[in-house]
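Problem: given the chain below (155 residues), write out its structure.
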Amino acid sequence: IRKNQSFRTRFWDESKLQKLKALLNLDRRLISVFASKKIACSLPAAEWLFGENRINDVLYLKNGIDIEHYRYSEQFRHLIRDELGLRDTDIVLGNVGRFVEQKNQMFLLKLLLALQSTNKNIKLILVGSGERDAELKEFVSFNGLSDKVVFISYI
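Solution.
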């Protein structure tokens, strides 16, 4: 089985796309011709990968997330902010990921430290855990950011 699937409709960095456009177009045509099964999460994703004229045999697998569960709610916003000790006037930055060097949460902490001189209402929520837990928490404590950073372990 030769399968290909698409979850995107465009590249994040359009300037890089220009450099690869000829190769990409050739690759997309070959994929469309030689794939024995075409899978996409949406019509735009299928059109992007396979071409508008080659989507009649695409299997659509919708994203398995109920977006209603994540729809904005003013009531839920207040509930979570109260639970985390955040005021309505606080500007909240967040990061979810493993606490490892590659994810670079230390950069966010240094950024928060620098931003404190211009805005005292900025808070940072770090969700995760990992080998840099102690280092990150020590940086927060040493730099007096304990009231500005909320650590949440994975559930």
